[in-house]
Structures are given as C-alpha cells and as structure tokens.
Amino acid sequence: MMTTPEPRIDGREERGDRTAQALLTAGRNAFAKVGYAAASVRDIARAAGVNPALVRYHFGSKEGLYRQVIDEAMSGLKGRLFSAFAQAGTPRERIHRGIGAYLEHLAQERDFPRLVQRALLNNDPHLRRVAHEYLSPLVDILRPFVGRRSVTSLGNLEEIIVSVFGAIIAPFLYEPLLADLFRRDVLSPAALKRRRRHIEALVELTLAQILPPEA
C-alpha cells in the first residue's frame, strides 16, 4: 500500500520565521525604549543577531517592521479583552474579567505601555489607524452595558473609560518613579494583586450608577 509522504519542512523557511520573530522582538524593545525615529535598523539587527539587510527582506523597511510591531501589540490586547467579554456572565462579571485581562496583558507584555507612550509622545501617525482598528471596537463593547444611563455623577462613558484606563496603566508607565517614591516593587505579583482589587473597587462605584443591582 502506498503512503503519502510527510510534508518536508523547509529549513530555510523555519530559519526565516525565527529571524523575523527575532527582529520583531528586538524592534519592539528598541521602539519602546527610544521611539521610532531614534531606533536604528543597524542596532535592531545587532540585537536580533542578524544582518541589517534582513529588515528590508522580511518587512520592507523600518516602517514596515514598526507597523508589524504595533499591529501585533494591539491585536494581542484586543484578543485578550474580546475573549474576556465574550465569555458568559453578568455585565459586572464580564467587565471585571476585562479589567483582569488588561492587567495580565500589561504584566506579561512589559514593553507594551512604553511602546504606546512613545508613539503618543512622537505624535505617531499610525495611532489613528490603531485607534480605529483596535480601540474603537473595544469601546463599542462597553456601550451596551451602559445603556440609557450614559451620564452619571461620575461623568459620561468616555470620562469613565479614561479614568479606569489611567488607573490601570499608570503603575506600568511610571514604575521607576513609583518604585523610588514608595521604596518597593510596584509591579510585583503581590502589588499587582492589590492593584487589581483597588481598581475593581473603583469600578464598582461606577457600576452602581450605570447598572441595576442584579446585573
């Protein structure tokens, strides 16, 4: 009986995938540290352990690498949050799952907050595209939870989102300053657990105004 041969894995393709991933990792680190303009293709390639020409080969240009870095960073966050909200549960449960998913993403992807911050400081033109493709759908998820009671003593939905977002991301953006100020690791597992409880308590104050008690 004849058998179908197993497909062969092209070693060059596998090496190419590893090279592209190494460049993405090195690029993400560089863009987070110094921003797009100051990041050097040569330095990124050196950190990845490859020839600088491979940036053009895999991504077309430094800008192409940067766009891929931004897309992967934002799509990872979007995937986590969509998954958290998609699971069954009351609006309260789903919102708290979303908060937990966001904190977990920031804790595991330490370059992410600085990457976004650098883009904001540099008035990055890619941010508008990122906002429309990745952030707008997340805001739309929250609108049904608010319903008609969109304005409270705490403000409208937009103000609430900004406040909660700021409370979540602040320790990751200001970690060196806060660590010196409080003389402790503000991003340790124990500190992040306390931070999550604090944010959930703040969110409950808001939910009490925009959701019925049984929701």
Secondary-structure topology with pairs:
Elements: H1 11-38, H2 41-48, H3 53-59, H4 62-86, H5 91-108, H6 111-121, H7 126-146, E1 151-152, E2 155-156, H8 157-173, H9 175-182, H10 189-210
Antiparallel strand pairs: 1-2
Helix pairs in contact: 1-2, 1-3, 1-4, 1-6, 3-4, 4-5, 4-7, 5-10, 8-10
- The CA-CA distance between the termini, in Å, is 63 Å
Share in helix: over 70%
Number of helices: 10
Query: Strand order across the biggest sheet?
Result: 1-2
Task: Count the beta strands.
Answer: 2
Task: Provide mean pLDDT, rounded.
Answer: 84
Task: Outline the structure in words.
The N and C termini lie far apart (63 Å). Helix 1 (11-38) packs across helix 4 (62-86) and helix 4 runs antiparallel to helix 5. This protein has a domain at 66-210: Orthogonal Bundle (Tetracycline Repressor, domain 2), CATH 1.10.357. A hairpin with a 2-residue loop joins strand 1 and strand 2. It is built from ten helices and two strands, in the order αααααααββααα. With 215 residues, it is mainly α. It is 77% helix and 2% strand.
